[in-house]
């Protein structure tokens, strides 16, 4: 009997208990993660009322956003009770932003559909001027910036951003050709060129920073994924978002993010002031 049992157990070993299978990780939301990454970079600080680090907005301000896009920036400002003026060449975006602002305590909302050449706004109107990711699209940056300066009050703060060349260089052989054609990115602006543009417009630069490694890599993968931007569901993008979430959740996640932002950044941001005299 013992021989038989040994024989049977030798030829048909009892299987070991199966290892528990881990549940698949939840898919990170690319856009929600991008917003979280932006907050870590200094955007949308609700505790300090800074739209971006160093750019405080209060109910006393008149905020002009030129090229308002989806309205995220002015929604933050509207929640501070500021007067809001928006201008964009796309009438649908202006209307969508107007509706988005309707649930804020903004003390007034003024909307313009305009190519901003010139701006339909009186001289010395705004105490805060915002224009993010617009200058790379316009035919004449000097003329565009001159208009922004004209409508700001003496002492007004300016929040300006353009794509960083490190990210643009990363995209140049991968992006769809129209990405670098009118009306999209018709110029790549270096750090020195950006600072010179702002200085030559008559503004005093307060800070110049960069952020957005996450978005730089996301956009690179987006071109390969060939999905709709409104529903970017693809393994390449989902895995990247999950990886970046894991990086941010790690003990030195913020330090790693800052190191990578310094190497490849989606955007460069200047805060400047219009001289009082």
From TrEMBL:
InterPro entries reported in the protein's UniProt record: Methyltransf_11, SAM-dependent_MTases_sf
Sequence ranges assigned to domain Methyltransferase type in this UniProt record: 64-158
Pfam families, per the entry: Methyltransf_11
The keyword Methyltransferase appears for this protein: yes
Keyword Methyltransferase recorded: yes
Protein name, entry field: Class I SAM-dependent methyltransferase
GO BP term, example: methylation
Keywords: Methyltransferase, Transferase
Any one GO molecular function term: methyltransferase activity
């Amino acid at each position: 009997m013992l021989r038989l049992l040994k024989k049977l157990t030798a030829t048909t070993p009892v299987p070991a208990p199966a290892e528990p299978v881990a549940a698949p990780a939840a898919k990170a939301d690319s856009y929600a993660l991008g917003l979280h990454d932006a907050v870590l970079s200094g955007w949308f600080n609700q505790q300090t009322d800074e739209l971006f680090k160093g750019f405080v907005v209060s109910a006393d301000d008149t905020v002009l956003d030129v090229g308002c896009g989806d309205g995220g920036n002015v929604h933050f400002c509207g929640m501070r009770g500021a007067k809001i003026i928006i201008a964009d060449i796309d009438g649908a975006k202006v209307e969508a932003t107007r509706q988005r602002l309707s649930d804020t305590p903004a003390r007034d909302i003024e909307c313009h559909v305009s190519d901003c050449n010139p701006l339909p706004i009186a001289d010395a109107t705004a105490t805060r001027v915002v224009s993010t990711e617009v200058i790379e699209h316009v035919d004449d940056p000097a003329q565009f910036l001159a208009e922004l300066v004209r409508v700001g009050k003496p002492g007004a703060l300016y929040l300006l951003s353009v794509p960083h060349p490190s990210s643009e260089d990363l995209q140049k052989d991968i992006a769809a050709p129209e990405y670098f054609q009118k009306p999209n990115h018709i110029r790549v602006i270096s750090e020195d060129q950006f600072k010179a543009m702002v200085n030559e417009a008559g503004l005093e630069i307060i800070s110049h920073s960069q952020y957005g490694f996450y978005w730089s890599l996301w956009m690179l993968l987006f071109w390969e994924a060939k999905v709709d931007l409104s529903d970017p569901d693809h393994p390449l993008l989902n895995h990247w978002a999950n990886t970046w979430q894991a990086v941010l959740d790690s003990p030195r996640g913020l330090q790693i993010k800052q190191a990578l932002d310094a190497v490849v950044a989606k955007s460069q941001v200047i805060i400047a002031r219009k001289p009082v005299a």
